[in-house]
Amino acid sequence: MALTLSSADLSRIRAAQDVLLAPLAAPSVEVWGRRVVEALAEVLGAESGLVLLPFESAPLVDCGTGRRLAEVFEHYFVEPATTGAPFPDPAITRSTKIRLSRAIRTLSYARLDHFLDGALSRSSIYNEMQAAHSHQDMASLLADLWRDDERVEGAVHLYFDAYSAFGDETLSVQDLLVPAFHAGLNAALDLDARRSTLDALDVPFVVCDVDGRVVHETPALTAALAGDEQGGHIRAEALRLASDLGGADLAVHPERVLPTARGTYTLRATLLPEGASLGPRPGVLVAVTVPTSPWPASEVLQSRFGLTRREVEVAVLLAQGLPNSSVAKALYISPHTARRHTERVMAKLDVPARAQVAAAILADA
Q1: pLDDT per position as a tens digit, 69-95
Q2: The CATH classification of domain 7-196, taken from the options 3.30.450.270, 3.30.565.10, 3.40.50.720, 3.40.50.2000
C-alpha cells in the first residue's frame, strides 16, 4: 500500500529533515539532539523522547520523559557502550543482531515484538521502561556508523501517550527520515573529531561564524574564564571581533586588549580559509591570551587523576567554586550531565566535598 501524505505532512517532514541534517548549526551536540527530538515529535505526534548519541559530552539527551526513563537507558545502553560490557538484557542483544543483519533502521514495539517472537512484554527492559514512563507506543530512528573499524550507534526514541499520527504508516514515515538522521550524525561525528583536534592543542581560543555565533570554544578557554566575572564580556568581545572580520571591516580593532580584575586579556582574530570552518558559515578563530592560570595544564590533570578532557573542564570549574548549574551553562551541557561529571570528578580526585576539589588539583602542582 502506497504511503499517502498531505502537503502539510510533507512540509513538516522537510522541516524535520533540515534539523536532522544541521548539527553544525547548533552550539553543541546536546542542543542538536534536543532539536531533533522536537522536530520528529512534531511530525509523528509524540509527546516525549530520548536521544542516544556516541559522544562523551552528551551520551543521553532526555526531552520530557522524566529522569527515571533516562536512568533505565543509562543502565541498558550508555553504561555497556562506555565499559564494553554486554547488554544487561538478552532481548537487546537478539533484536540488535536481527536488525543489523537485515539493515533495519526504524523500530516500533510491534517490530521489536516480531523480532522476539512475541516475547517483548516479558523482557526486563520493556517492563522497566513502562514502569519508568508510561506510554502506549514507541518509534525509533537508528544510525549505524563506523569509526576506526568500530561500529558506533546513534538513536532517537519517541514515545506516544496514544499512538502516532500516521498509525500503521508510521514506519514508512520513519524510513523517510532515517537517511537525514544518518547523514546528520555522520556530520556531527566529523565535527566532533575536528573539535577534539582543536581541544588537544590546549590553547585558549573560540571559533565563531561571521554572524557572531559561537561554533566551538576550547576547554582551555573555558577553564581560563572560569570564575572571572568578566568572562561573559570577554566572550562578547570575541563575537564582535569575529563579526567585524567577517564583514571584511579589518580596520576596526583587529586586536583588542581587555583588562579585568584577574589581569589583561588580548584577543586576536583570524578569518579561517574556505573549507576550514566548523560550521555552515565562514568562520573566524579568535585566540585569547589570558592571565597566568593557577591550575595545572589539562594533560597534567588527565595523567594524575585519570580524568577525561571534559572532566578536566569540570574539575577546574568546580575548583573555582561554581555550582552545577553554572558548570552546565559554561560547558553547554544539561544540569543532569553536569551533575554526573561532577560525581565522577570527585570520585577520581577522592574528595568527599566540592570545596576540596581546588586543594586536590593544586596539591603537588
Answers
A1: 999 999 999 888 878 889 999 999 999
A2: 3.30.450.270
